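tokens incoming
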């Protein structure tokens, strides 16, 4: 069985001008470092491959004081996030970040795919680009808010810098928040977690 894990490893010597993530694979009980995933201006993804041992322990078991392996207790189902964007580098970056944070992640490259994914299984949150082929983000936001079965779906719009009109329109149509592109990894995670946290508080009232 092969399991892929990740950890943050950004530094001034990594050659990355933005945020870098180390990728490692657990193979036969031994962690092998695969490389780095780098996201930064001008929104480029770089994967530098390197092989060698990595001090990453297997996530499937914990060792007790007696040295025997103990199974990890299963956690509750993580929040699900649907990423909708027609720019592959944006999708790949957000997908990596959301999975690393612990979310269940699905993706769609245009509006039609997004509606099909939502209809198949409504996510907890949609990261929704405004300008997309086939069906734009505003139309998707409107359709989500018009369906009572999707009333609990949270929406964060992805808008370009300087598009204040897009941002205001998205919020008026029922979006919960927005992220301006290009965005920092810290900002993206913080906004997603904040919206989900507010949603949980509302559900608990």
């Amino acid at each position: 069985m092969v399991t892929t894990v990740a950890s943050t490893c950004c530094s001034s010597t990594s050659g990355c001008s933005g945020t870098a993530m180390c990728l490692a694979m657990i193979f036969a009980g031994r962690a092998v470092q695969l490389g780095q995933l780098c996201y930064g201006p001008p929104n480029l993804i770089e994967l530098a491959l390197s092989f060698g041992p990595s001090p990453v322990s297997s996530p499937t078991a914990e060792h007790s004081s007696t040295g025997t392996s103990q199974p990890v207790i299963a956690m509750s189902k993580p929040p699900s996030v649907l990423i909708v964007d027609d720019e592959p580098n944006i999708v790949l970056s957000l997908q990596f970040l959301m999975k690393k944070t612990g979310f269940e992640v699905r993706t769609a490259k245009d509006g039609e795919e997004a509606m099909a994914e939502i209809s198949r299984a409504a996510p907890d949150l949609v990261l929704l680009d405004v300008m997309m082929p086939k069906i734009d983000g505003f139309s998707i936001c409107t359709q989500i808010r018009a369906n009572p079965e999707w009333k609990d779906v949270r929406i964060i719009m992805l808008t370009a810098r300087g598009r204040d009109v897009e941002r205001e329109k998205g919020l008026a149509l029922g979006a919960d928040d927005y992220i301006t592109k290009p965005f920092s990894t810290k900002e993206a995670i913080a906004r997603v977690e904040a919206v989900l946290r507010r949603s949980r508080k509302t559900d608990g009232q």
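note: The chain has two domains: 2-62, 80-204.
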